From TrEMBL:
Residues 11-350 form the PTS EIIC type-2 domain. It is found in: Cell inner membrane. This is PTS fructose transporter subunit IIA. It is a multi-pass membrane protein. NCBIfam families: PTS_IIC_fructo. GO terms for molecular function: carbohydrate:proton symporter activity; protein-N(PI)-phosphohistidine-sugar phosphotransferase activity; protein-phosphocysteine-sugar phosphotransferase activity.
Length: 352
């Protein structure tokens, strides 16, 4: 039992380390994207930025978000195994967050966390090998990173990503069979899928499904999806404002950044909160997003562009219900967090 507790505490420490190193990239990326997209106009392909300066700022923000997941994965491994785990986990964190393999599967931040843990413990095991002194000097910079990246990477591509890809295909087929009938159920599912991994494969599946329907002139599922993308970051932002005793000063600062990200439809603003307290945050934002999506579908909200948040309000049919659905979904998540998330002092006492 003590060994299990030690492993769990090591993992919690690793996740917190990953989050602390990741946070600056989230803040920088979110603020730059918010400023750049805030000057754009809604077009057929989403928010279109005309100013070259703002395009450059948007690219800087996008770069911050591209670095976010590899840094998370890398420093999870670093916490477990030290420097030799950093490079393999960053590489595989990048791989997890981008399409790879014959099925072009991506697993987002959840896959990156898994890669960070796997690399960390694999490297930790490698460091116990008995090798001659001449080889030991090149172990941390050559042998361990190469072997770790190759072995864990091949396992990810050929073993882990295959069932995930099959599951994503099944989800698309299931959603396609549902359109037309049960609007509220479809809205619930789209909303929940949007929040469950915040930019990961399930979220991307919902996006692909709504884009395919948009091409056929069906815009209601996209309305549900675009309502839902804003709810997780908005919920976390409001929760940090009204339940200040439940969050650290660092969390409350991040809540301000999450607020801007929610307004421009960037779900990833909630990821740091989910990583730090996944068992409370994830259910709260999934339920809130599902409620928002269902309300949007039930009231015929249509989003005419592939982007979300309040920033696209001018190109939404059913503007009032778009805002109401987003607000109610957000408040549902905030209420769940209020009743399930303990104050910091209580959480510290529970750990002791």
């Amino acid at each position: 039992m003590k060994k299990e507790n030690k492993i769990w505490k090591d993992l919690q420490k690793a996740f917190n380390t990953g989050v602390s190193y990741m946070l600056p990239t989230v803040v920088v990326g979110g603020i730059f994207l918010a400023i750049a997209l805030g000057t754009g106009n809604a077009g057929d392909s989403g928010m279109e930025i005309s100013s070259q300066f703002m395009k450059n700022l948007n690219d800087l923000g996008s770069a911050g978000f591209a670095m976010m997941i590899p840094i998370l994965s890398g420093y999870i491994a670093y916490s477990i195994a030290g420097k030799p785990g950093l490079a393999p986990a960053m590489i595989l964190g990048y791989v997890a967050n981008n399409p790879i393999g014959s099925g072009q599967v991506q697993t987002g931040f959840l896959g990156a966390m898994l890669m960070g843990v796997a690399c960390g413990y694999f490297v930790k095991w490698c460091k116990t090998w008995k090798v001659p002194p001449t080889i030991r000097t090149i172990m941390p910079i050559l042998i361990v990173p190469v072997i770790t990246t190759f072995i864990i990477g091949m396992i990810y591509i050929y073993v882990i990503s295959v069932p995930i890809g099959l599951a994503m295909d099944w989800l698309v087929d299931t959603l396609s069979s549902m359109q037309g009938g049960s609007a509220i159920i479809l809205g619930l599912i789209i909303g929940a899928m949007t929040a469950v991994d915040m930019g990961g494969p399930i979220n991307k599946t919902a996006t692909a499904f709504t884009l395919a329907l948009m091409a056929e002139g069906v815009y209601s599922p996209n309305g549900a999806h675009r309502i839902a993308v804003a709810i997780p970051p908005l919920a976390m932002a409001i929760s940090t404002l009204i339940d200040r005793k439940k969050y650290t000063a660092e969390d409350r600062d991040l809540g301000i950044s999450a607020l801007f990200m929610g307004l421009i439809g960037i779900t990833e603003g909630a990821i740091p909160f989910a990583i730090k307290d996944i068992k409370r945050v994830l259910p709260a934002i999934i339920i809130g997003s599902a409620v928002g999506g269902a309300l949007g579908m039930a009231n015929g909200v249509e989003a005419l562009v592939p982007h979300g948040g309040l920033i696209i309000l001018p190109v939404v049919n059913g503007k009032l219900w778009y805002v109401i659905a987003m607000l109610i979904g957000t408040l549902v998540s905030v209420a769940i967090l209020h009743f399930t998330k303990p104050n910091l002092e209580e959480a510290a006492n529970q750990k002791d």
